[in-house]
Amino acid sequence: MMKFSVHLLTTYLAVISVLCFWIEQFFWGVAFAIGAALQFLYVISVIDRLPFTMLVLQRAVKMVWNLPEVTRVACLFMLSMLLWLALWSFGAAGVVALGIGDGGRWWLLVVLSVSLFWTGAVLCNVVHVVVSGMVFLVLIHGGREATSMPPKPVMSSLQSAITTSFGSICYGSLFTAAIRTLRWEIRGLRSKIGSNECLLCCVDFLFHLVELMVRWFNKYAYVQIAVYGKSFNHSAKDAWELFQSTGVEALIAYDCSGAVLFMGTLLGGLISGTCAAIWTRIKHPERVAMVGSTAMLMGMILVGLAMVVVESAVTSIYICYAEDPSLINRWDAAFFAQLSEKLHQRLQHRSARAREVLSHRIDDQIQEAVLA
């Protein structure tokens, strides 16, 4: 399913772009065409990483498949989100029906969309904390049925997520998704630049700026929040320092599981938006873009709530591997061997690249000295 969503998304964006041009929605046609081009470039740049990504996703699905209680929690939050969407829809419908200009309606819809996105992100991250806490406990204690497991661990994680950790979750939800998406796109663009030194310098600056923001706003902070109850910034800093000190950050940078899951979420939102836009085209042709974009956002939030269960398992696996690799070895020895081998390869690749860059700099300095 993940491979299908990765390759289908580019085609789907291109088809929607053509349809938008056909119905004379030129702005949306250009927007979807740019999206299709960026998606194609990104997939081409990370095509060699997909086998490892699928391996990690398979193990994450294996983990959550044996934890049906976390799936029930996710379904409960999806139901809550549906109720919120029903209430939110009345507000959005009222904005659309207002007798003000299109500009005013668009601004009001933007404000409503931000509130919807933030609410969806908060609910996703609450599920993230619950699932991460449960997966971490299972790996530490050696199984869900272990006698050392605390009683009712899911309810304990849920209670902590919606009480003491709720402020940190709301704070982190404002930034993590947007920064993560920007990081994926810049990384994909960076890997495709050839010998254009000026462009590479500009992209490197943006990349390092985004990397700095990722240090303070990353999804791995939620695992620390779930397990240790720290504040968001403290958790994000500790998680990043843990990855840097163990070298696991090189493995995470190579893994594209978050991007692949986001592609599935985006595809689900696009399908929802397309269906709504077709219906609106028949009933209210003048409101196709407004209703279609709103429906796409709503669809993305619901699909994202389902995807976050797998993503949380992935983040917990990396945190456990960084803190104590023997936990992963005890859970799945074959997977541990594959992770260790890939980490060794990535660290060797980084070392070779660093030596190459240093060698080029020394050669440049020698040439400058000779010319001087």
UniProtKB/TrEMBL annotation:
<feature type="transmembrane region" description="Helical">
    <location>
        <begin position="259"/>
        <end position="279"/>
    </location>
</feature>
<dbReference type="GO" id="GO:0005886">
    <property type="term" value="C:plasma membrane"/>
</dbReference>
<dbReference type="Pfam" id="PF04515">
    <property type="entry name" value="Choline_transpo"/>
</dbReference>
<dbReference type="GO" id="GO:0022857">
    <property type="term" value="F:transmembrane transporter activity"/>
</dbReference>
<feature type="transmembrane region" description="Helical">
    <location>
        <begin position="30"/>
        <end position="52"/>
    </location>
</feature>
<feature type="transmembrane region" description="Helical">
    <location>
        <begin position="160"/>
        <end position="179"/>
    </location>
</feature>
<keyword id="KW-0812">Transmembrane</keyword>
<feature type="transmembrane region" description="Helical">
    <location>
        <begin position="73"/>
        <end position="100"/>
    </location>
</feature>
<dbReference type="InterPro" id="IPR007603">
    <property type="entry name" value="Choline_transptr-like"/>
</dbReference>
<comment type="function">
    <text>Choline transporter.</text>
</comment>
<feature type="transmembrane region" description="Helical">
    <location>
        <begin position="106"/>
        <end position="139"/>
    </location>
</feature>
<comment type="similarity">
    <text>Belongs to the CTL (choline transporter-like) family.</text>
</comment>
<protein>
    <recommendedName>
        <fullName>Choline transporter-like protein</fullName>
    </recommendedName>
</protein>
<keyword id="KW-1133">Transmembrane helix</keyword>
<keyword id="KW-0472">Membrane</keyword>
